[in-house]
Prior knowledge:
The chain is of the alpha/beta class. The chain has helices spanning about 15-25, 40-50, 60-65, 95-100, 110-120, 130-140, 150-155, 165-175, 190-210, 215-220, 230-240, 240-245, 250-265; strands at about 5-10, 30-40, 55-60, 70, 80, 85-90, 105, 125-130, 145-150, 160-165, 180-185.
Amino acid sequence: MEQQLTIGYSPCPNDTYIFYALVHGKVRVPGITFRERLEDVETLNQLALTGELDLTKISYHALGHLRERYALLRSGGALGRGCGPLLVARPGTELEHVRSGTVAIPGKLTTAWLLLRLYDPALTNVAVMTFDRIMQAVADGAVTAGLIIHESRFTYPLYKLEKLLDLGEWWERYSGLPIPLGGILGLRSLGSDILLMVEEGIRESIRYARANEAEVLSYCRRHSQEMDETVMQKHIDLYVNDLSQDLGNEGTAAVRRLFAEAEKRGIFPTSGMPLLAGE
């Protein structure tokens, strides 16, 4: 009898691209079927805190609070260079204005917020909202600046906003490592054998997407109907890369460094649990 696992991921094109084949049975993990749940990343972060999902995409910030219950898979994540969160504001805004104002952020467990805290702990006055509302809130003057993620990095000029800070560039200079944004977790209680099979299934799902892009992109399009086609393709090209296939030594080092920086500042607790599935 097959075991059904719940898997959470976002409707963002990189996630739907990666998981299409896995959840539609185009690639098989022996003895396992999947039931998907699509939510924005901060909702997924919160669901993971309760252990509601067997497998889920999360922000690496959230994983800092989840290591006792979940292990990190080496595939399916979003890491890279030139893909970090941006701090944007209306023209004429300076960074010192932001320190005395309010910053809209996409969630207190997002890696974007963690990176901003690492960059400048003085930026503490924040307003949490879903990522797709942030640019309009900045443009309307409801907040001083906005911390934007996902496809917003391609579209903020349409709102007549300017970039104040690229937190990805800062992290790359500071650490010399890729930017670890989001990863895939599995419940430790499932056991290493199942987690490692799922890890390989995700790799096969990405390979299927590369070989059958027209089919897969129609699924991505259904979940990003308001997104321009060019923006959708840019999103996939940026966030689905070699590190999505496998963290490798460099990706793993980036995650460990991010956690070390956060632990050093007391942002989240240390953990004696192994980071990766099968370790």
